[in-house]
Amino acid sequence: MQFGGVQKTSFIDYPGEISAVLFTQGCNYSCAYCHNADLIAFKESADESERVIADLLTRKKNVDAVTITGGEPTVQRDLPQFMKRLKDEGFKVKLDTNGSNPDSVKMILSKGLADYMAMDAKTSLKRYPELAFTGVSERVQATSRIIMDSGVDYEFRTTAFPPLVGESEMEDMAQWLSGAENYFLQQFNPGHTNHPSAKLIAPYSVKTLSRLLDIIRPRVKNASLRGVDVPTPVEKCSC
User: Fold this and answer.
1) Global confidence as pTM
2) Is CATH 3.30.750.24 the right assignment for the domain spanning 3-226?
3) Collapsed DSSP state (helix, strand, coil) of residue 34
4) For the segment 147-188, what is each residue's pLDDT rounded down to a tens digit?
């Protein structure tokens, strides 16, 4: 396994758990709003699996869960073996994926190597080739069904990048994510991207995000905004 970074402690990446976060190298997408763009390309480095696991074990009293993110973890061939090592050491494992490798995800889930899955739903299926490669739409749709049928806790999440996510895209995602357990619409933050043009894109207002979320809400069991401060309604005094 080749890693691009390690966050020793996170209270937000793995729902309900304190986890370490491992950032893998390599990604097969090219998203303009990516906030981990330095992880897209593989860099020359040795296999770091044993070193990373040894470091995790020194902190296991405080951190008993691991989030594997990227980049795109499933592009690394050693991912299943690495996840098995983590499970054998007693860690709970959350895997983040862009959904482009359904066979890898299916094998990982069939072997019980993931306790929680988080998959990005980027945009409508017909627009996926703008981010990746021909045929990716079918792979993403297949992965979403594999995850939903797995029995493992999971979530789907969409970063509301205005050029890629609007009403028509949300309507499309509502179709192929129909029946999903948990869905999050995340605010786009231009300050978190290294792409010059993306930095100039204004994020949606909370009102617009809420309207977009309402499109998918009837089709999923739980739908929420993430990364935004939703104002709490002030009750009028009846005195």
Assistant:
1) 0.92
2) no
3) coil
4) 999 999 999 999 999 999 999 999 999 999 999 999 999 999
